[in-house]
Write a structure and sequence with these properties.
Two copies of one chain form a homodimer.
Chain A (H helix, E strand, L loop, with lengths): L11 H11 L4 E5 L5 E5 H17 L7 E5 L4 H12 L3 E4 L6 H11 L3 E5 L3 H7 L7 E5 L11 E3 H6 L15 E7 L7 E6 H11 L12 E4 L11 H8 L2 E4 L6 H10 L4 E4 L1 H13 L10 E5 L6 H8 L3 E8 L6 E4 L11 H8 L4 E2 L4 E5 L14 E6 L23 E9 L5 E6 L4 E3 L2 E3 L1 H8 L5 E11 L3 E10 L7 H8 L11 E5 L12 H7 L7
Parallel strand pairs in A: 1-11, 3-4, 3-5, 5-6, 6-7, 10-11, 10-12, 12-13, 13-14, 24-25
Antiparallel strand pairs in A: 1-2, 8-9, 14-15, 15-16, 17-18, 18-19, 19-20, 21-22, 23-24
């Protein structure tokens, strides 16, 4: 027998249409390049997204064609998020913080046909123009009469050219809708192509009460750049639920973020630990400047947060929730919320648990595999490689057959993370495989050391890397940025760690710097540190 | 270009496996036939559901085979909900409150091959044995040595026969998983076959914060019978999220329900208005007997609740939320939660809005079509036929080509409800098409009259039906059940209504009865009332 249910595809055009119908008056707020605040509505966004879809189709966009964006977190980007897929195209937000050569490689590799670019980023286009060509370029945010590069047009003209005489193309839910490149620390960037289905299912999971928990009554702030894994899905989730959406524009400094949190009554957001560290420092430096009335549910991802950070932010009514994912997982894979049976744990253990990567959201399957390829049982002490599968996990990189070894024969994605899974199913990532420190035959976790060091009140940020050692093969070296006015010493930090680590696990050297170098999305750039200290002379 | 995402099917076996892994210790509670309370865990349910799947396969179950259940709301039923689809079968909960002839018709029409039956319902099996035959019958809840009908076996023996040596069949998400028959008030019952996909997507929508809002920290009480549209999806949603699940067994009286709400700290549930009316009466009769600590989010569906009922229950910390759906819509289609822009309305208008059927959950599309087939714009005053479509809406009835006219040429399901959609997108069902009263060329809504009459403090329940009239074609007649000790009169009710209705809309006759007749799922049986009063002599 067969099911009698309708075949009804999960598409972003359906999400867009519902938002336009039900949430017409819901606000969308953005910070402009000049730091002023602009306000619009979902109704206006809906009309403009449809206009974009129509004009792209009339400009010759064919099904599956890529439209690159060089944009920050703004409403034009949101229009591209929905308007391009509604037209049957693939929106490709490009990480504009990468080196121009890498950007040129990415747009060539993706085969981007069209480009939507913010006027402020035109110098970047100039830098890559000899390496990458777009058939059409539309410039957003340029003054009406301002000169544009040869062949480029105003984005507003593109929108204005629509007359409403158009219908959506018929879409299959497996059709491609968006793509992002992940800038691995080794090798060229690799592309992931999301489908309408994968984005819709990811959104359903993200808004669940046990994940981000987003309703139409929330106000959602997008801090993570919209070119980084679809802004962690938050733009989709806000439009899906009708929540008020607030976009940071190009301003990610803690004061800009805190100002929006307070003035827009933000209830849900997400950002990497380095952002939350900066927010904490700003709050502690000016404890009366920002008053957060309702508890802010603030997801932290991209790296494990120190427990001290969770504790510090809770004093200011910011509740950090650790989630884990990757570009390859759309990104939400696991969420660190406390399971019911752990609510009776002592407070310190609750914080410890909440700092783990968490447990799988529905339909995301996770496992840890040992060096021999055997699945490690939950509750084991030996770490192995974390592998995942599910409806919003990549099955390959775009047009990149040489990376097929990132998937197992039975179809799981090898994350490259080293992890354990505890008896309750919480994943705890010990390290990226390449960041583990092998000292005298024993493994040392750089992540554990970093988070412990960042628990010291005198430390702003810390990264620990493996440095070659003549006797022990590798030894940990800590690179530490002190907080303002802190004069903490290597001896004090070593003493501080001795309560939590065995003697052989404690870094032999502490290097003090003014700032830890960061990747384009704000994570610690450990490859650069390893390179910088590879010839370190051990005493 | 193609998406690079994994093809990962949405199946109930995946939901079951996740629950077994992450929610092993979560409680499942049921009320036994003798009214005692039994407790088990998701871990135990998981093992038994797998054992059921294995034993069914070893008993010869083939993909798509139907397994009927004659069961109330209990753990065996829950095992069938997951174990049968995991084995590739189709679980078919049969409405055991129907007439035996209708039940026999249904199991024959569905082609049910196997049956799982509660021992207390064996007399029903005896009544239909000459009209319907099952290849195998398993009896749950029978004492170990108790005599069984010829050919029947103990359900516990079936479970005990499993040895764990089995693997799930490979399932496609469009494979059938469950079926329910809807007992229309005219004609034979019609079957709807749900797929794994439709149930999973419905579950994602149901647990959203703007719908039932179910998390692992909730305690969910299933009041609606599990043979009525999958118990409104609540059993699936609880297993999906890891919420504590509480099952009413065969006891649906208000004291039994209130006892469970209090003793199990229920946070989410759902039931039809007649149940909530009985609960209100019980609470008002003994205001100190039950103390509900945390607000109970109580969905009401199946018919529109009177605003007076919402107000009355809020005094006891029960927050009614109106949702609408049908067997054909899995059931959740719309939800009456207040949209953000309506939160500033005066309280009385908020209650009025919350009594409407509400607005569509994601991917459920709704429209109202006039007699000429044109879609009626939102905010219009003229009602039309409500039509729906979406991934968990039936595209046909099972093996029933003569009902094809219930779907439009462009693929929408015609609900048979007459409705308007207001400017905010809230559906307001005026009536079932056949319940509208045509008086002197004007339409009168029986639903509006019923809810107004039930707003009178002396009224327990009221149903209004059209009765033929020599001059006006039809006139409304109200059938009223007074509350205990109430002596309200027809004249008083007529006077009470005159504040809200035009003179010609007010019923010409009020008949007082001890109880309104109900359908098998507890709705007012208006067909019976129309039949009973069709020869009414108007004064």
């Amino acid at each position: 027998m067969e099911s009698t249910m309708m075949r009804f595809p999960l598409t972003l055009s359906c999400v867009l249409e519902r938002a336009g119908a039900y949430f017409e008056r819901t606000e969308i707020v953005e910070r402009r390049p000049d730091r002023s605040i602009a306000r619009t509505t979902i109704g206006n966004f809906y009309n403009r997204s449809r206009a974009l879809a129509e004009s792209l189709m009339k400009s010759g966009l064919r099904k599956g064609d890529r439209v690159a964006t060089f944009l920050w977190n703004d409403t034009v980007h949101l229009e591209a998020y929905f308007g391009v897929p509604a037209a049957g195209g693939v929106v490709h937000p490009v990480n504009i913080r990468l080196h121009p050569d890498e950007i040129a490689y990415i747009v060539r590799h993706a085969g981007d046909r069209f480009l939507i670019i913010d006027a402020a980023l035109l110098p970047l286009l100039e830098k890559i123009k000899n390496q990458a060509a777009f058939e059409r370029v539309w410039v957003a945010g340029a003054a009406p009469g301002a000169p544009l590069p040869a062949g480029a047009d105003h984005y507003e003209s593109l929108i204005a050219g629509a007359n409403g005489n158009f219908t959506y193309p018929i879409l299959n839910e497996d059709d491609p809708a968006a793509m992002c490149y992940t800038s691995g620390t080794t090798g060229r960037s690799k592309g992931v192509v999301y489908s309408h289905r994968s984005i819709v299912l990811h959104t359903f999971a993200e808004v669940m009460p046990d994940a981000f928990g987003i309703s139409q009554h929330d106000a959602v702030l997008v801090i993570s750049p919209m070119f980084h894994v679809n802004g962690w899905g938050l733009p989709h989730s806000a439009v899906f639920t009708g929540a008020k959406l607030v976009l940071t524009g190009m301003h990610f400094d803690p004061a800009a973020i805190l100002d929006l949190i307070v003035s827009e009554n933000i209830t849900v957001t997400g950002a990497i630990p380095t952002i939350w560290i900066a927010v904490r420092d700003a709050l502690e430096a000016q404890p009366t400047r920002w008053k957060i009335k309702n508890t802010l549910r603030a997801v932290v991802g991209g790296a494990a947060p120190p427990a001290a950070l969770l504790r510090a932010l809770e004093k200011f009514n910011i509740k950090l929730m650790h989630a884990w994912g990757m570009t390859e997982t759309s990104p939400v894979a696991t969420f660190g919320s406390l399971k019911s049976n752990l609510l009776s744990l002592p407070e310190c253990q609750q914080f410890e648990t909440r700092c783990k990567q968490g447990w799988s959201v529905p339909f995301m399957e996770t496992r840890v595999v040992d060096a021999g390829g055997a699945v490690v049982a939950w509750g084991g002490r030996d770490p192995g490689e974390l592998q995942v599968r599910g409806p919003w996990v990549a099955a390959s990189y775009y047009n990149n057959p040489e990376t097929a070894d990132r998937w197992t024969a039975d179809g799981w994605f090898k994350t490259g993370d080293v992890a354990t899974i505890d008896a309750d199913g919480y994943i705890c990532i010990t390290d990226r495989a390449k960041d583990l420190i092998k000292s005298g035959g024993e493994w040392i976790s750089s992540v554990d050391l970093e988070n412990a060091i960042m628990g010291h009140p005198g430390v702003h940020e810390a990264a620990v890397v493996a440095v070659p050692h003549p006797k022990w093969q590798e030894r940990p070296l800590a690179v530490v940025a002190r907080r303002a006015h802190s004069e903490v010493t290597a001896a004090e930090l070593s003493e501080f760690l001795s309560g939590h680590f065995a003697k052989w696990q404690i870094p032999d050297a502490f290097v003090f710097v003014s700032e830890i170098p960061k990747t384009s999305i704000g994570k610690f750039k450990k490859t650069a540190l390893r390179e910088q200290y590879k010839d370190w002379k051990w005493c």
